[in-house]
Amino acid sequence: MAQLFLLHLNENECYHCLAAVIVRAKEDRFFLTTNKTRNILFMETFKDLVREKVSSKLSKHFLTTGTNMSSFASKWFDRMFVGSIPYWSVHRILDTYLNEGNKILYRVGLALLKSCTKQLLSLPHADAIQEEVQAFASTFKRGDILMDDSFSIRNLSRSHFDYLEAKRTGCDMSDSLQDRVRKAAVDEDDFGDHEYKKDATVMAPRLHGHSSIVSKDELAQLWQWLPPLQRHGEGMVLFCTSVSVRWS
């Protein structure tokens, strides 16, 4: 973001703009992710949205080929697509980001994958898929078409993001959050494959036992760093110093 600001502002103006963004982020968590846990949730929510809004087949194809979406999507989001798509399009994204927050990052990421879904489904290996995604994004020269495609994706409400995050963390939604989700009036038909709603992925494992070294939240975060195929079971403490070790 600083790199983009410096193309149009002097250093003093750039500093004050960045400070304003950080202040806004403290007030609105959908404006800027401010810690590693929220960063993980942002990425995991994007994976759910790919399954809902782009293609459930593509999501399954990523799993079967061992393709980790984070390997390319995290670069998109962390760098606001700088270096991934042509600069003209990046400026359009920045303009929208300053107006509505990080929802535009979801929109553009989904639009890019939607535009090359057919090509990606034909590739059998993770390396080939990642190369195709990067090559496709870097040559997407029509920024106006990219933005039109991004805003054609319907029902990206913040209450729905809350709902997906609540499922990922295994937390119960508050009454107010449930009300906001209902009021979002998300069209079920836009979700694509209904199998998704029957088999939701939970980010936080049900951990049996405790640790005197790290907290339960930290254990859940460590669990999240495992590859997806190794996270299908539940976390279980097999060894605990306070229980397993006999002190002489």
TrEMBL record:
<dbReference type="InterPro" id="IPR050302">
    <property type="entry name" value="Rab_GAP_TBC_domain"/>
</dbReference>
<dbReference type="GO" id="GO:0031267">
    <property type="term" value="F:small GTPase binding"/>
</dbReference>
<protein>
    <recommendedName>
        <fullName>Rab-GAP TBC domain-containing protein</fullName>
    </recommendedName>
</protein>
<feature type="domain" description="Rab-GAP TBC">
    <location>
        <begin position="1"/>
        <end position="101"/>
    </location>
</feature>
<dbReference type="GO" id="GO:0005096">
    <property type="term" value="F:GTPase activator activity"/>
</dbReference>
<dbReference type="InterPro" id="IPR000195">
    <property type="entry name" value="Rab-GAP-TBC_dom"/>
</dbReference>
<dbReference type="InterPro" id="IPR035969">
    <property type="entry name" value="Rab-GAP_TBC_sf"/>
</dbReference>
<dbReference type="Pfam" id="PF00566">
    <property type="entry name" value="RabGAP-TBC"/>
</dbReference>
